[in-house]
Design a protein that fits this description.
Helix content: 25-40%
Oligomer: single chain
Strand order of the largest sheet: 9-8-7-6-5-12-11-10
Largest sheet: 8 strands, parallel
Radius of gyration: 28 Å
């Protein structure tokens, strides 16, 4: 009886699985579960790295990073240019167990990374000696966690043995506590300044404690003279400049209040005395009386009133709406010269940048003394607080920026997992602006770094950001890229989670290819790059009048790119400032050497044609056929997403190569939580608004508006059936689908793959159960 029941249950399970598969296939989704370990075979990019030695120490020489060479002296003939292709390891991910460190480092190396950004080390302190998620305990800041520091020190050495440099972030997200840390409370609630607080850069007690933390940490990690330490970021996303340029003008008063406002005021008065000789002299310069109110710093909200010339809220709103209208029709929102600005406002901006600079210079001097005098140091990301941040960070060694596409937003509680939304747009479909805008921050005399970038899960076309960023950065001659980020922790789970690479398979399969493209010289920089000729006057005017995080980008677009079309970016992409593209029959030269890659952008499609690489990304073009050099691609439907990257592993031209790797990324999602049978979770409009998307909640009992951004297993890959045809001088090929870690599976046979002399045809995702995203091509 029991045996019969079990047999019946087994049959029911088979039927259930079959029904699940039928449902999924009808929706063009197939369940799969990838593995995660060192990548092997054709996809392995480990050969790009060699163990780091003293000659590999990095210094800044002009606009780029260079190795010091065997003479160990920067600025000599044996120095060599180096680009860093890296990834952030945040929190617990930065502290692998001793027996895991080698495996993690080898996995990163096999993906082509030659740098790791150790980030958020000061977040989530714990006093549990068995928990490793921070360099700090919950004791008074900065009390180091001995076990975590021991793990990190070992990990850094292991990374160096795999040819991977380290970028160390210092102040990121530590939450100061008045009682334990000896700092004043921010408000009547008794809490201290949190993540992103500008108090970190000006409050003496906080700055002194950061000095102590940097000294203790670097000494404990043994970083004095260590050649594998490539960069240090003094602070992440905090500064007075950033707070001034906030979208919300109220943030200044919210983040700088109580004893912190008093401290900043005292520093302001001391600055005025040094600059003008006395408060009275300053007031005379400003044309104001000199009572207590007149001597206050100009806040962003007060700046609006000063520039409007009226205290009337109604008049202020009308004037701001008029400024927006002028901007939309091509006018300028800002004044024409510094003489048009209130002098007290100019003094405020100068004080802000001077205060930021004093903090950064102090930390830079400290770090140099603790490590080596040639170590590249950044003052934090520049684009949130630009142009003020560009001014305050001029003494830093390189410019550091962040950019994201489809970054989640949280209408309710910050970082809620049940109420969030994002704009699900493709970069190839027109979402180029966040990447193109970075050109506004380029300094021709210093290296340029993007220390965070991503288009995180569950963005449908998030995989596009890997080839697009690598190609753009190579053509722009940037110096370092850091994907954000690796994983929540070093566990066995392999599924997408928000920003994580581990489990985000469409991005993973392109990392090694992107590393080759960016780190090697197959795609040479444009020879005609011209940085925007920024002046201090333009920077002060922009900061005073626009007061928004993208204000400097807007200034660059208005002044340097006055004819940019509202509906497209072609003129911006063709400009010498930003990009160059082959549109409307125009040709393109990538470098003085005369190599001429074909680069096409038409608003819905972008493609890059190099001798050894063919890349095509297209979303929403409605086309079914594409031609790219010797490669042609035919979709089965006009509404399909299109993405393909073919790389010649032997360095030959694609049409003559005998060993190639083909990557075909497509969308991947997790399962609907608690669904039985398992079903792929859906991307749906957020609150019926088509402009915003989220993941459909499995239940609305608790008022949930979204499903978690941590994917539930099993994962599902979207089938995008298509035919790929290659014209080649090789008479025949064998094509191997590859496992999730790169090992060969049985070769494909007809009709899926057919090889004729000079013509080879591959059918992708035509088999209902096929989940492969990459293929190795070999000519016998």
């Amino acid at each position: 009886m029991l045996a019969q029941l079990l047999r019946e249950l087994g049959l029911a399970w088979v039927v259930l699985v079959g029904l699940t598969a039928i449902t999924a296939h009808a929706q063009n989704w197939v369940p799969f579960q990838p593995e995660w370990r060192r990548f092997t075979g054709a996809v392995d990019a480990s050969a790009l790295n060699q163990p780091l030695v003293a000659a590999d120490a990095i210094s800044v020489q002009g606009p780029h990073f260079k190795r010091v060479g065997t003479d160990l002296q920067p600025g000599t003939s044996d120095d060599r240019r180096v680009r860093l292709f890296g990834i952030s390891l945040s929190g617990a991910a930065a502290f692998p167990a001793m027996d895991q460190a080698k495996e993690v480092a080898q996995t990163l190396r096999s993906l082509g990374f030659n740098a790791v950004r150790l980030h958020s080390l000061d977040v989530s302190p714990t006093s549990d000696p068995a928990v490793f998620q921070s360099t700090l305990t919950q004791g008074p800041y900065p009390t180091l966690h001995p076990g975590a520091v021991e793990r990190l020190r070992h990990f850094i050495q292991v990374l160096g043995s795999e040819g991977i440099y380290v970028n160390l972030s210092l102040m990121v997200g530590y939450q100061f506590r008045p009682t334990e840390d000896g700092v004043p409370p921010l408000d009547s609630g008794g809490g201290g300044p949190g993540y992103g607080s500008p108090a970190h850069v000006f409050h003496p007690a906080m700055v002194s404690k950061q000095v102590q933390y940097a000294r203790q940490l670097m000494e404990a990690l043994g970083l004095k003279g260590y050649h594998g330490l490539a960069q240090v970021e003094v602070i992440n996303e905090s500064s007075l400049s950033t707070t001034w340029m906030e979208w919300d003008a109220k943030k200044w008063e919210q983040l700088i209040q109580g004893p912190y406002a008093q401290e900043l005021h005292q520093q302001w008065i001391a600055w005025l005395r040094q600059r003008h000789g006395s408060e009275q002299a300053a007031c005379k310069q400003w044309g104001t009386r000199c009572d207590a109110g007149d001597l206050q710093l100009v806040t962003p909200r007060q700046a609006q009133t000063l520039l409007a010339g009226s205290n009337s809220p109604v008049w202020q709103r009308l004037k701001e709406k008029f400024a927006v209208w002028k901007q939309q029709i091509g006018g300028h929102q800002h004044q024409n010269s510094l003489a048009d600005l209130p002098p007290k406002l100019l003094d405020t901006l100068q004080f802000i940048t001077d205060t930021d600079r004093a903090y950064l210079d102090r930390m830079k001097t400290l770090v140099r003394g603790l490590t080596r005098t040639t170590l590249p140091i950044a003052g934090g990301q520049a684009n949130f607080g630009a142009p003020l941040a560009l001014i305050s960070q001029r003494s830093m060694d390189y410019v550091d920026t962040h950019f994201y596409v489809s970054h989640p937003e949280f209408p309710g509680a910050s970082w809620s997992d049940t109420d969030w939304r994002f704009r699900d747009k493709a970069m190839s479909g027109g979402e180029w602006l966040p990447l193109v805008n970075l050109t506004a921050y380029r300094d021709p005399n210093r290296p340029f770094v993007v220390s965070e970038f991503n288009q995180p899960y569950p963005a449908t076309w998030g995989y596009e950001i890997i080839p697009l960023t690598a190609a753009f950065a190579a053509l722009q001659d940037w110096d370092a890229l850091y994907f954000f980020d690796y994983a929540l922790a070093h566990d066995k789970r392999v599924a997408p989670h928000n920003f994580n690479l581990k489990g985000d398979w469409p991005k993973t399969i392109q990392m090694g290819l992107a590393a080759r493209l960016f780190r090697q010289d197959s795609l040479k920089p444009f020879a005609n790059l011209t940085p925007f000729p920024a002046t201090d006057e333009q920077m002060w005017l922009t900061a005073a009048t626009l007061r928004r995080p993208d204000g400097w980008e807007q200034q660059v677009r208005e002044v340097a790119l006055p004819k940019v079309e509202a509906a497209g970016l072609h003129p911006a992409l063709r400009s010498r400032l930003a990009f160059a593209s082959k549109t409307h029959g125009e040709s393109l030269t990538s470098a003085a050497t005369g190599s001429r890659p074909s680069l096409d952008i038409d608003g819905k499609t972008w493609s890059l044609e190099l001798p050894s690489d063919l890349i095509l990304m297209s979303q929403g073009s409605r086309r079914t056929e594409y031609a790219l050099g010797p490669l042609t691609l035919k979709n089965t439907r006009s509404d399909q997403s299109t993405a393909i990257w073919m790389h010649a592993l032997d360095g030959q031209k694609i049409e003559h190569s005998r060993h190639m790797l083909l990557a075909i990324p497509t969308a991947v999602v997790g399962s609907m939580p608690d669904a039985r049978p398992a079903l792929p979770v859906k991307v749906v409009p957020y609150q019926h608004d088509p402009e915003w998307k989220t993941l459909e909640p499995s239940s609305k009992k608790n008022g949930d508006r979204s499903t978690s951004r941590t994917a539930t297993e099993p994962l599902w890959i979207k089938r995008e059936p298509r035919t790929i045809t290659l014209a080649s001088s090789s008479r025949t090929f064998e094509v191997y689908p590859l496992s999730s870690t790169g090992s060969r599976l049985p070769p494909l046979k007809a009709p899926v793959f057919q090889s004729e002399p000079g013509r080879h045809t591959l059918q992708v995702h035509t088999i209902p159960t096929q989940t492969h995203m990459w293929f190795e091509w070999i000519a016998p």
